[in-house]
Write a structure and sequence with these properties.
Blueprint (H helix, E strand, L loop, with lengths): L5 H4 L3 H4 L2 H35 L7 H45 L4 H29 L5 H28 L4 H5 L1 H15 L15 H18 L4 H21 L18 H16 L5 H9 L3 H22 L6 H23 L9 H32 L5 H28 L8 H16 L1 H9 L5
Helix pairs in contact: 3-5, 3-6, 3-8, 4-5, 4-8, 4-9, 4-16, 5-6, 5-16, 6-13, 6-15, 9-10, 9-16, 11-15, 11-16, 11-18, 12-13, 12-17, 13-15, 14-15, 14-17, 14-18, 16-17
Length: about 475
């Protein structure tokens, strides 16, 4: 592999975190952090928002619309990068995100706020994708792996910071300031970008047409499964899942027609390295999305406070950060072992969570609680140690002339996998006791089914990942 040359092994953290590279690192990690922290801030303040301006019936749409427009932004990011260059592409994304934040902060009703969330998601999706795409452009190849480790690790930091920031504003009764608080960060990043990012790419722009039909179908797929997951009917849940999957099949058939591509060539085939890597990424993300209901289980079954449950759940994301930073500097034959070990760690961790989460004696035993917390961290750790190296393999497997598209498609894949998995999580818990019988018993039943079923995701990844070389 080209990423495992002696040149790569000579890279040091100091090379990435000093001088001009340090400012570039701040810019790229800042884009991901701004997008991710915003997600957790809004999740925290939404109850306060509803109490103030109403709109409980649109509660879930805050996430649905944000993710849907984020997918659009990430899918368009390669075209924006080609047309405007690194500096202005990043500034455009920051501007759109900032305008969305101002819109949200000034919204008098939930329906109007959803418009701001759509703008935030679109700008955030571009930022998210550019943060990965620009690694290949602004850093030398020997720093790619470390840079990807730092960038992917921002999700863990966001999970730790977001609830705290949102909680401060929510408890003080000033939820609007949570949106205003994002603006100074955007301005700070813009100043760095103005001074450090190049105006143009070193390589020639990759001429491509925007796949509007494929992007539209992808958004429809997300909305279909998201809307379907809100129903308590298993039949409707399954129908929405099947329709969503059918739309993906249609996208795979249409993608690339007339020179318009959503994903790079080979992304839909398991005979191609890209197809194997992308599906592996989806399966790993699937295991991670079980975190959505961990706070509810901890509060309902074990009577943790909301703040305690939230931060215990953050252990999963912290595991991702620790894993990414630990693994990013590894090179040579050990990388393949790391990639194959990650799904095993996730699988074992989810099985442990399936066994222990419903046990009311969990908090009575220090040993059981420690095992439980290690398992929670293991879910994030497993994906964290794999992610930088899987991303690097996407870079190296990208067809010539589709490098920018391959970079942005990483985020498109991650966002779609998150949305799909989150909706499927809702289907599982709603039909395994969460709603009926509900209460503690329902939560116990749902926790067993959720973690047990989603352990199949990393199990499939264990089998599939053997094809990754």
């Amino acid at each position: 592999m080209s990423n495992e040359t002696s040149n790569v092994s000579q890279a040091k953290w100091a090379d990435l975190l000093s001088g001009t590279n340090a400012l570039l690192t701040i810019a790229l990690t800042g884009g991901v952090a701004l997008h991710a922290i915003n997600i957790y801030i809004v999740t925290t303040i939404l109850p306060s928002v509803v109490n103030d301006i109403g709109g409980l019936e649109y509660y879930a749409w805050n996430t649905t619309i944000f993710v849907a427009t984020s997918i659009v932004g990430s899918a368009l990011s390669s075209k924006i990068l080609d047309n405007f260059g690194p500096k202005f592409a990043y500034l455009i994304a920051l501007t759109i995100f900032a305008l969305g934040s101002i819109w949200c902060a000034a919204s008098p009703s939930m329906l109007i706020l959803l418009g701001g969330r759509a703008l935030q998601g679109f700008g955030g999706g571009i930022l998210f994708a550019l943060s990965y795409a620009l690694i290949r452009i602004v850093f030398t190849e020997n720093l790619w792996s470390r840079a990807m480790g730092v960038v992917s690790g921002m999700w863990g930091i966001a999970t730790l910071c977001g609830p705290a920031i949102g909680g401060i504003f929510a408890e003080s009764g000033h939820w609007r300031w949570a949106f205003w608080a994002l603006l100074p960060v955007a301005v700070f990043l813009a100043l760095i970008v103005l001074g450090q990012l190049p105006r143009k790419q070193t390589q020639s722009p990759q001429v491509s047409k925007i796949p509007f039909l494929a992007i539209s179908l992808l958004v429809i797929s997300v909305l279909t499964i998201s809307v379907g997951s809100l129903s308590e009917s298993l039949v409707i849940n399954l129908i929405s899942l099947l329709i969503s999957i059918a739309i993906i099949v249609i996208i795979a058939f249409l993608d690339g027609k007339n020179g318009k591509r959503l994903l790079p060539s080979g992304a839909y085939s398991l005979k191609n390295p890209l197809g194997v890597i992308f599906l592996t990424m989806c399966l790993l993300v699937g295991g991670m999305t079980t975190e959505i209901y961990v706070p509810y289980f901890l509060q309902t079954i074990h009577h943790f406070s909301p703040l305690s449950a939230g931060y215990l759940t953050a252990i999963m994301a912290a595991g991702w950060t620790i894993g990414a930073l630990f693994s990013a500097n590894k090179t040579g034959s050990i990388v393949l072992k790391i990639i194959r070990t990650g799904p095993v760690i996730i699988f074992i961790s989810l099985i442990i969570l399936a066994i222990l989460t419903h046990n009311q004696k969990l908090t009575d035993s220090v040993l059981l609680l420690i095992i439980y917390l290690v398992a929670m961290m293991g879910v994030g750790l497993g994906i964290g140690i794999c992610w930088p190296h899987l991303v690097l393999r996407v870079f190296n497997s990208a067809p010539k002339g589709e490098e920018n598209l391959a970079s942005s498609s990483i985020i498109t894949i991650q966002l779609y996998a998150t949305a799909f998995s989150a909706a499927f999580v809702g289907v599982v818990v709603n039909n395994s006791g969460l709603m009926n019988p509900g209460g503690m018993i329902g939560a116990q039943q749902a926790s067993i089914w959720l973690f047990a079923l989603f352990s199949l995701s990393p199990l499939l990844a264990i089998i599939l990942i053997r094809k990754v070389k």
